[in-house]
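Our collaborator T.R. sent over the components below with a one-line note: 'Predict the complex.' Nothing else. No constraints on interfaces, no templates requested, no preferences about which chain binds where. So this is a plain run: every listed entity goes in together, and whatever single assembly comes back becomes the starting point for the next discussion.
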Amino acid sequence: MPTVNAYAATSATEPLVKTTVERRELGPNDVLIEIKYAGICHSDIHTVRGDWGPQSYPLAPGHEIVGIVTEIGAEVTKHAVGERAGVGCLVNSCRECEQCRKGNEQYCAKGATGTYGSVDADGTITQGGYTTHIVVDENFVLRVPEGIPFEAAAPLLCAGITTYSPLRHWGAGPGKKVAVVGLGGLGHMGVKLAHAMGAEVTVLSQSLKKQEDGLRLGADAYYATSDPATFEALAGSFDLIINTVSAAVDINAFLQLLTVDGTLVNVGAPAEPLPVAAFSLLMARRSFAGSAIGGIAETQEMLDFCAEHGIGSDVEVIAAEQINEAYERVLASDVRYRFVIDTATMN
Ligand code: NAP
Ligand code: ZN
Ligand code: ZN
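Returned assembly:
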């Protein structure tokens, strides 16, 4: 089996270290991708640190992957050598259940295979994008349009689709008032995408520190959630709120900001529960919902939408040896707005 350079966690408490991981031999339907950039998603940190449950180590995270196709299996028809390719959070699913057939592979009844930390078809544990190469079934490989710079495209594979999917599902567009809670990796993509869809966008951040950036990214308004006056001023105003916060926040306070029939979609995934009071919902027929990434076809649709609207992620490109430092900055909400690893620094 080919061995490739990687950065991996060896336990929930130790920093990531330079190491190697094994890639399977190219099967008939597989694509070999030479990875150029890999984004750092907060989910990488939750996972390697055990927030979501025990993991098998060593584990190389990373599910915001872009690179070049360097080899294809004998039966591959969807991708060609030399193509700009992307891989997001999924590398396989059952392909037969109702949700897979609908293109909702992320909600596969048998459990989709995650890009890292999942049990693969051959029984091994999948290893993600903090590596120089990855082998993926052609059906789970995306085409990255030429118009989007590679490093700015990587975060679209998770942060982009995770905000695009609920914005589309709940009809963000002209005449809709959308709020995005938390201006981090997901949040800044949510602002750009909701703005491009024609919605009126408000950022709800902990402070006003990033206000200028928020308005530049496409927000029409920006408020600090640390100021109680924000919750009075905005009561009952939004049709849709996307909560991207990685920690447990007071959901009831945010539900009060929804208009009648409004929906708060939670995409943040803290380990702690998010308790909801019955009265936060029933007095205005509000909904509290969740959403996980998006299916493969929808991810391609999102990439094409981004190319059409000139959207990429705002990134800080780092060398692999800066990963641990970047993790600390993400945890301190000091990210503008996605760290992306230049995988050439792993060689
Ligand atoms: P991120 O870049 O760290 O952004 C999270 C933002 O939340 C921060 O920038 C900060 O924004 C705000 N925040 C952080 N701690 C907070 C606290 N204690 N109280 C209030 N606000 C706080 O993280 P991300 O990569 O965007 O991911 C966000 C969450 O979504 C993570 O839990 C991740 O696992 C999850 N996720 C879910 C999916 C899905 O499919 N549903 C996909 C990807 C990620 P401000 O500084 O503006 O307040
Ligand atoms: Zn992610
Ligand atoms: Zn399925």
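Summary for T.R.: The chain has a mean pLDDT of 97.
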